């Protein structure tokens, strides 16, 4: 098999070498793209491809660089299909994207609520959960866990926040509004910290997610540190 | 006139750390935890309704091109694909959102692995501005959540040094073997089949394919055919048969991608001639012509 593979690899290399021509790139000259960028500048690329006749005059004012790819890269270059800058699956449905985004965030928030026995929307503990929550004054909480305007709502959404104390409270409405209208959190001057009621936290079932998800989740996630 | 000089753009790297690379415990740990980061099933069957395998290949190819063009570190692309697969195996996704996800995954992988990560703006431009900056940033958080912030996934690239180090390779060939193996790993990441394989197996198969392809087996008996497979299998505790199968699949994917490239080559060649490239590469091209077999499909890998 090895000799076949050899002949084959040689074929690969020579084929790929031809593709090298595709490596001739027009460098971007837009100020906002820093030196590492090879992104075609916003208007240059379409002009080049559509109006070939003008190409020389356009490119002579710009820098043309021919980059020779290393041999190994040429194998991958065989996969190339025209300009890297392209739309793959037609126009993006921005409205649908926004809806999906909000739904996913809401689902995560609900998961987190179930898992931690805490309603993050109203900032109140949920009765009958595995955790017993008690209020702690803000001043007693490490600075890290105090209200922050940067990471609004993050811990709730992820459902994997190690410490519910992060669910700090004093969020003003303007910090929340843009991300999720469901995050209207009441202002309170206390932090809530969970205490594990039992010796261990029971892993809660997520009813709104398929069985597959659960299997996957066990396989992928690291052992949960909290609640142990 | 603005001039850009890429040669100035050096990234300062740490030296290879023998404490990490020469310690078998590291390899064993990688082997132990790698399973955690593999999707368990084909999500095309049980999770996704809108997304087909060929779409994954399309987005993967695009991601690879972006990573190449931006000269990302080798592991960025395989890692980004790992994120994408893990996300898609839990969240049903529409096809028109797939490119956004690909961009988000590159964004995250690049931030984890690179000293100078890809910027969100660049990624948006590569999508021909079909993705909005705000969307990229919002979805970053969603993807992170679905990955449980578990970003330090094991990739095949993590094994390369550990494997290569244990092979009786001529010193001057090591870099080349490494490079070829990395290339094969990237190629594997574009194919969904490989997403279900342990990264160590892909790494081992890629190194095997690289050594076979480079004809390095002439000097050392232990690098010959079955000997090599046995040696490689031992290093990563892989079944020899699985490893051989994997290596063959890698070679097939290679063949397939080159055939595709060949098919596309004709129009592109015409294209490039029109672009009027500066000279200086003629020698290379002539060399190509002479060394290219009449038909790659004649090459039998079986």
Automatic annotation (TrEMBL), chain A:
<dbReference type="GO" id="GO:0004861">
    <property type="term" value="F:cyclin-dependent protein serine/threonine kinase inhibitor activity"/>
</dbReference>
<comment type="similarity">
    <text>Belongs to the CDI family.</text>
</comment>
<keyword id="KW-0649">Protein kinase inhibitor</keyword>
<feature type="domain" description="Cyclin-dependent kinase inhibitor">
    <location>
        <begin position="88"/>
        <end position="136"/>
    </location>
</feature>
<dbReference type="InterPro" id="IPR044898">
    <property type="entry name" value="CDI_dom_sf"/>
</dbReference>
<dbReference type="GO" id="GO:0005634">
    <property type="term" value="C:nucleus"/>
</dbReference>
<dbReference type="GO" id="GO:0072331">
    <property type="term" value="P:signal transduction by p53 class mediator"/>
</dbReference>
<dbReference type="GO" id="GO:2000045">
    <property type="term" value="P:regulation of G1/S transition of mitotic cell cycle"/>
</dbReference>
<dbReference type="InterPro" id="IPR029841">
    <property type="entry name" value="CDKN1A"/>
</dbReference>
<dbReference type="Pfam" id="PF02234">
    <property type="entry name" value="CDI"/>
</dbReference>
<dbReference type="InterPro" id="IPR003175">
    <property type="entry name" value="CDI_dom"/>
</dbReference>
<protein>
    <submittedName>
        <fullName>Cyclin dependent kinase inhibitor 1A</fullName>
    </submittedName>
</protein>
<dbReference type="GO" id="GO:0000307">
    <property type="term" value="C:cyclin-dependent protein kinase holoenzyme complex"/>
</dbReference>
<dbReference type="GO" id="GO:0006974">
    <property type="term" value="P:DNA damage response"/>
</dbReference>
Automatic annotation (TrEMBL), chain B:
<keyword id="KW-0539">Nucleus</keyword>
<keyword id="KW-0832">Ubl conjugation</keyword>
<dbReference type="InterPro" id="IPR039361">
    <property type="entry name" value="Cyclin"/>
</dbReference>
<dbReference type="GO" id="GO:0051301">
    <property type="term" value="P:cell division"/>
</dbReference>
<dbReference type="GO" id="GO:0005737">
    <property type="term" value="C:cytoplasm"/>
</dbReference>
<dbReference type="Pfam" id="PF02984">
    <property type="entry name" value="Cyclin_C"/>
</dbReference>
<keyword id="KW-0597">Phosphoprotein</keyword>
<protein>
    <submittedName>
        <fullName>Cyclin D2, a</fullName>
    </submittedName>
</protein>
<feature type="region of interest" description="Disordered">
    <location>
        <begin position="260"/>
        <end position="302"/>
    </location>
</feature>
<keyword id="KW-0132">Cell division</keyword>
<dbReference type="InterPro" id="IPR036915">
    <property type="entry name" value="Cyclin-like_sf"/>
</dbReference>
<dbReference type="InterPro" id="IPR048258">
    <property type="entry name" value="Cyclins_cyclin-box"/>
</dbReference>
<comment type="similarity">
    <text>Belongs to the cyclin family. Cyclin D subfamily.</text>
</comment>
<dbReference type="InterPro" id="IPR004367">
    <property type="entry name" value="Cyclin_C-dom"/>
</dbReference>
<dbReference type="InterPro" id="IPR006671">
    <property type="entry name" value="Cyclin_N"/>
</dbReference>
<feature type="domain" description="Cyclin-like">
    <location>
        <begin position="61"/>
        <end position="145"/>
    </location>
</feature>
<dbReference type="Pfam" id="PF00134">
    <property type="entry name" value="Cyclin_N"/>
</dbReference>
<keyword id="KW-0963">Cytoplasm</keyword>
<feature type="domain" description="Cyclin C-terminal">
    <location>
        <begin position="154"/>
        <end position="296"/>
    </location>
</feature>
<dbReference type="InterPro" id="IPR013763">
    <property type="entry name" value="Cyclin-like_dom"/>
</dbReference>
<keyword id="KW-0195">Cyclin</keyword>
<keyword id="KW-0131">Cell cycle</keyword>
